[in-house]
Amino acid sequence: MSKGQELFDIMKSFEQGDIDADMANGAIRAVLNNGTSASAVDTIVSSAEWISVEDRLPETEVECICSHDGRVFSSVYDPEHKKFYMPSVSSSRYKVGFYIKVSNWMPFPEPPNS
User: Fold this and answer.
1) Is 66 part of a structural domain of the chain?
2) Which of 26, 56, 105, 109 has its CA 20 to 30 A from that of 43?
3) How many independent structural domains does the chain possess?
4) Which of 69, 68, 77 lies closest to 102 in space, CA to CA?
5) Is 64 helix (H, G, I), strand (E, B) or coil?
6) 104: Cβ–Cβ under 8 A, 6 or more apart, which residues?
């Protein structure tokens, strides 16, 4: 299962009331973790490198770490519509998912050398 699908499933469970906000945030952090230590994830999401969407948006379609209303999640920026979305299916011909509200974003860090 792709990271995007995992995040979509988490958000769907939260919206349906199957899990609460704390469980959703923990699950999202676990997906973002993806082999990175918990302290490294905490450093990433609490760093001062957040970019306000009012200051700047990504220039291309790219997956980002995003934040809104105290939550942290992964999302894809759609430069054609100037919005972020949670993909469920994506190909060169079409996108399926839903647009989400984002207040701040940052690019994913480079992976470790090992």
Assistant:
1) yes
2) 56
3) 1
4) 68
5) strand
6) 50, 51, 52, 53, 66, 67, 68
Distance CA 95, CA 113 (A): 32
- φ, ψ at 68 (rounded to 5°): -160, 135
Tell me the pLDDT of the chain (114 aa) as tens digits. Answer: 566 667 667 767 766 777 666 666 667 767 766 655 555 555 555 554 789 999 999 999 888 888 888 888 888 898 988 999 877 655 445 555 678 899 999 887 776 676
SS3 of 32, please?
helix
Q: What is the CA radius of gyration of the chain?
A: 14
Q: Is residue 7 part of a domain?
A: yes
Closest CA relative to residue 75, chosen from 99, 94, 91: 99
Q: What is the pTM of this model?
A: 0.55
Any domain includes 114: no
